[in-house]
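Let us begin with a simple case.
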Amino acid sequence: MTPSRIEYDLGSNVHGQPVRLVRAETTGRGPAWTIYRDAADQRDDSSEVGGLTSEQIKRMGDAVKQHS
């Protein structure tokens, strides 16, 4: 049985802000992925990009492989 939420710590971005990738079940739509950029300190803001499909995450990985 797959957990309803899986979280991956992706380290920090170039500005030192923590980045996470989260897969969570959505109501009636199956799983979706969200990328979170958390605040590193009080002056930082946080942001997220949500509702991503597994196919979109795979395409991101392919793009990184192609340009690394």
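The second case is a distinct protein. As before, the sequence precedes its structure tokens.
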Amino acid sequence: MADGLNPTDAVNMRQLSDAKRQLENKMKSNHDQAIGTATMAMAMANLPQAQRPGDKTFAVAGGTAHGKASFAVGLSASSTSGKWQLRGSVSSSSNGDVGAGFGAGYTWR
């Protein structure tokens, strides 16, 4: 049976198998990227941060899941009054993806 070409043509087994393989490959790629991104978030979430007023902290952390791994580096600081906190980090996964985050906070009573 020849390949179907028109919208109303039937597909042959080779066409169906090719489409299935392409879909499976895309799903695996998406899964691997999602796991890599999740490990980046795990690494960034586990970065220790400055605790006391005036502290500055440089930190490194890692994350792993389902055979994927990531590392993160970050810097955090607390103002001398302890009212302001700043934090920034960069993470990279074994997939080659890179992500970054930044946060600032103000504390009052």
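The mean pLDDT is 95. The longest strand covers residues 68-78.
Keep these points in mind for the review questions at the end of the chapter.
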